[in-house]
Amino acid sequence: MPKPDRRGRRREKTRRALLEAALELIASRGLESTRVEDVTEAADLGKGAFYNYFDSKEALVAALLADAVRDLDEGFLGAAITGAGGERLRAVVRQHEAYFAARPAALTLFHQVRGLLLRGSAQDHLRPVVRDYLARVATCLEPAEPPSDAGLDRAAAVIGAVTGYHSFRIASGLAEREGTVLWLLGPDPGESAD
């Protein structure tokens, strides 16, 4: 792939600045309270610059979510998921917990996007990204292309358990504890009992 020219690098830098500003604002203020004007101000850009990259706030949020899913898949799930059955399930849970511990703003983003979709808004850009996320996790749990409906159900259950646990701990003001969701799965057959 050829290296982008100066204009291409500048465009990517501006796009990245908008995405980073948006994620930080969404994590601190919430998705609904974050306006396009807030994002452009935080990125130190004019409002018009925003529309050179995204046609709407929903498109920006979809790009953020797609980046988060790609980051999770490539940096945490991809090579780390091996074995079969329960071993794969434990690996998916461990990698999700590691991802959200390393990127807490992504946890907020995932939950708030889910809320938008449950209320029936912002479906055009976001629902396909959420479906892709489910498919990626389902494939990690059970390698099959395309994933089965049962595989998608299991992926939704795993994602819901991990993100739900973390968001409830945060909402209640309690510190998150590593390994709690794994505890729900029972003892790891590969570990010896002490």
* DSSP summary, beta strand count: 0
Described by the principal axes of the CA atoms, the overall outline is globular
Radius of gyration: 18 Å
Structural class computed from helices and strand pairing? mainly alpha
Write the H/E string, N to C.
Answer: HHHHHHHHH
List the uncertain runs.
none
Q: Approximately how much helix is present in the residues?
A: 55-70%
Question: Would you tell me which CATH topology of the largest domain applies?
Answer: Tetracycline Repressor, domain 2
- Chain-averaged pLDDT: 87
Give the quaternary arrangement of the chains.
single chain
| Count of distinct structural domains | 2
Number of helices: 9
Q: Give a quick account of the main beta sheet: strands, pairing sense, barrel closure.
A: none
State the distance separating the first and last CA atoms: 53 Å
CATH class of the largest domain: Mainly Alpha
